[in-house]
Amino acid sequence: MEGKGMVCVTGGTGFVASWLIMRLLEQGYTVRTTVRSKPTEGKRGIGYLTDLPGARERLQIFHADLDRPDSFNEAIEGCTGVFHVAHPTGFTKKEPEEMVIKRATEGTIGILQACLNSKTAKRVVYLHPFHPLKGIQGFKIGSLSSKKLLECEFKFNYGLGDMFDGAIQSYKEKDFF
């Protein structure tokens, strides 16, 4: 199968990101993903990612952390698309909401800067459990729909397109964007 190009998925150990990685590999993409902890340091292994069909040939795993936004540069360099799914932790540590939002905002801006610096990233898909960029003057959220992913030749099975539409609608109802 001829490759479709290289994309980056941040937060690769998360639920949505790991499903996205699986689908991208199925479609023939080379995937670079980021994980917060080095595989030997984490609470759980990453075998569920490295054992995916096509992972041995087309999955590269990078260590990156939203607290160090420049740590995403290497993973994004050379990619034509970036799926930003990573989000900061801290909810269990009773970290103040303002601090979580600050970390998410700075991390997201750092990832967007890495995309600009790469000169290869043509599209960024932003999926987040909350929207830290809401309220930043001049930041405009584009129209969101799984149809945009389909336009990029992504094929969804198991109702994934409906899942994204449902998540987007839920976020809109909660005024996250």
UniProtKB/TrEMBL annotation:
Recorded superkingdom: Eukaryota
Pfam families for this protein: Epimerase
GO function terms (MF aspect): oxidoreductase activity, acting on the CH-OH group of donors, NAD or NADP as acceptor
UniProt keyword annotations, A-Z: NADP, Oxidoreductase
Gene3D superfamilies per UniProt: NAD(P)-binding Rossmann-like Domain (3.40.50.720)
Residue ranges of domain NAD-dependent epimerase/dehydratase in the record: 7-127
InterPro entries: Epimerase_deHydtase, NAD(P)-bd_dom_sf, NAD(P)_dehydrat-like
Keyword Oxidoreductase: yes
Keyword Zinc: no
PANTHER family on file: NAD DEPENDENT EPIMERASE/DEHYDRATASE (PTHR10366), NAD-DEPENDENT EPIMERASE_DEHYDRATASE DOMAIN-CONTAINING PROTEIN (PTHR10366:SF611)
Entry protein name: NAD-dependent epimerase/dehydratase domain-containing protein
Organism for this UniProt entry: Salix brachista
Lineage: Eukaryota, Viridiplantae, Streptophyta, Embryophyta, Tracheophyta
